[in-house]
Every structure is written in C-alpha cells, then in structure tokens.
Batch of 2 targets.
Target 1
Amino acid sequence: MSIRRIIVQSVLYTLYTLVAFVVCVYLLFPYDLLQQRLVEWLSQEGRQVTLTRLRPAFPLGLQADGLRMQVEPLSPSAPAVEIETLSVRPAWAALLSRSLQARFAAQLYGGRLEGQVRYHQAEGGPLWEVQTRLVELDVARHALLRTGDKVFIRGRLSGDTAFTLSQAGTVQDSTITLQVRALGFLGIPGWQVPLQREIACENFQGTLKTSQKQRGTVSLTCQSKELTLTTKDGSVGWKTPLVDSQLTISVTVSSEKVYKQEVDLLAALVRKRPDSRGELSFRLQGPLRQLRLGA
C-alpha cells in the first residue's frame, strides 16, 4: 500500500468521524432544555414568551414552532407577536471573520418574514445589524387590531426594515418602509373619531427613519379614487414604554363625495374648515397611547 493511499484513507476516516460526531451531537442535543433556557432568557422586563416546540432544522439550523410574545403594557392580554414557525440557520463561514451571522425565515399572520442578523465588533462597541423583509402579512389577524369579531384595520402588509442595535438593545439607526395593499381602516380602540364605515385605501405607504441622536421622521401616503391623504413634518420621539413615545405629524386629507361626511366630522373636531380645494389640514400629536387631533 502506497504512502499516498494511506494518507488519503486517514484523511477520509478523520472526516467521516468528525461528520458523524457533529451529526450525533446535532440530533441528540437536549433541545427541550435549550427551549426552557431560551424562554427564561426572553421572558424578562415585561416580556412573556411561550414556545411550543424547538427542534433541529436541516442543515445545521433550529426551528421554533408556536412562538408567542406578550409585552407589558402594550399587550397585557393579547400577544404582540405570534409566529407559527421560525427557522434560523447560522452562517458558519462568518466565524472566520470573528462575527456571528444568521439567516431566518418565519411564517406568521398568513404571510412570511425573512431576513438576516449580524453581530460584529465596531469602533464604538459590538453591534447587531438586522435586515428583514415582510411579504403579504394579513394585518387583520393581529390580536391588537381586533376586538372579538370586530376588525379595526385590514389589508396585506409588505415592506423592508433595516436597523442597528447596540449591545444594550438601543436603536442606533433604522429605516422602515411599509406598504399595505387594499387597506381598510375603521379606527382603533379608544379612537376619538367615531367612524360609521370603513375607510378604504387602495395603496397605503409609510416610511419611518430614526437615528440615535435625532427624532425619527415619519411619512404616510394613502391613495385611492375616492380619498387622498398625505403627511408632512412627521416626527416621533421614542420613549420607554413604547406607547409613551411622542408623535407629531401634519395631515392633509380630501375627498370630493364618497368620504365627505368623514372629512366634515374631522373638520368639526379640529374646528377648521376645508380650503377652497376641499382639502382639510390638521395635526395629530401626543403619546401613542392617546393621540390628539388639533388644527
């Protein structure tokens, strides 16, 4: 037997042993214990997390089934997030560059979410960079947007998000671009405008940009044959808890016939008449938990 053949066989046997060891550890790993520790770690500081099952996902990944999260005081009785399945697959090659990177995909609210997360050392300290894409989420299925059989907002949500977090969880900067197809709006619980019918919007778009040192900027656009709604000078000051964040935004709305009754109702609430073009401008401001209308 030649030396070359001996070396080749030794290398193959070594690789076989390593692969077999990794597969055995991967399949026999105590995922029940990992699930328990993961739930305990996530359920802190006003968060309550439940997880039905944690199991391996080929190749060399994890899949979580039945993930639910409740956040105080945002959702004391209903889940703020409810995910049917979530799979995470690490990018093992990224370890060579001394960073952690993983791709994830989730099924939720009749649509899907996919993206990637990267943890690396930066000049000011370690950072988490997260990018996601939302595809056709049915917003009417979200527990916070319905009361019993009554749905306050319906439509199919898509969009992209990108944000950077510090080690402590502070948002350094973020960009969120969302689009809702066939939006239907009937107010929200506690909304001071008593809408008698659903406001329909064929195409609704929104953008939110934030940075660590500046207030976030917000822009919204609703376009349909019967209604036009645009915003300007939108800003948001983030606070903890989230519902105490301060929103200030100028809104312009107009409708020739179909929603004239709703526009007149808004005009009475803000004590301002529409201009000669039939456009009504007003301000929406205050904490997210109790927004107020003003001229």
Target 2
Amino acid sequence: MKKSIVIILVSLLVAGSAAAFIIPGESACEAAETGQLNIPVKQLHSAPDENSTVVYDIPITVELLEVGADGNWHKVKISYAIGPFSYTYVGWTYIPVAKILAEREAKELAALLEEPQ
C-alpha cells in the first residue's frame, strides 16, 4: 500500500516540476538555477489552472526539492504520519518533463514550418 501511495504522489509532481519551469518570477528562476527548490504539492486541480476546482487536498507532504541537470530527474521528499508513527522518504524519481516539453516544442516548430505562406 505504501508503494501505491508513493507512486501516485510522485506522479503528481509532474505538475509541480513543470510549474518550476513555467511559472514566471525571480524566485522560481533563481531556485531552478541554484538547484535549491522546495515546492510543495498539496492540491489536485480539475484543470491546469490555479483558478480551477480543487478535486483533492493531499493529506501528506510532497515536496520537489531539486531538479536534475537534464530536467528529467527530480529529488522528492514524501512525508506522512499514521497515528504516532511518521514516515519520510527522500529520493530521486524519473519524470520526463524536459523531454515532453522539448517534443512539444519540436512539434509546434514543425507545424509552423509546414504552414504555407
């Protein structure tokens, strides 16, 4: 059961890690450059918009701590408590955000080049 929870929550980090690259602002950019991130993932939204409906409040702590040099490996901290026992896991997971964004850009560029002028 713990593995299922960890797998589900790590997959949720795609939104958090993409936000680190997409959201404008000096703090996010500076953090990405230095590798010192601490981005909590606490809510699931119905659409990729901060104003969309929250469909689930995550009852545990999930934090994106660092993004690898290639943008596809992410250091994650997952913490939760059950009764008097608390558990914390820190490790690296592969979420191909940079690869997906690069493929998306390549498709958009190819589409622009194919348009008749």
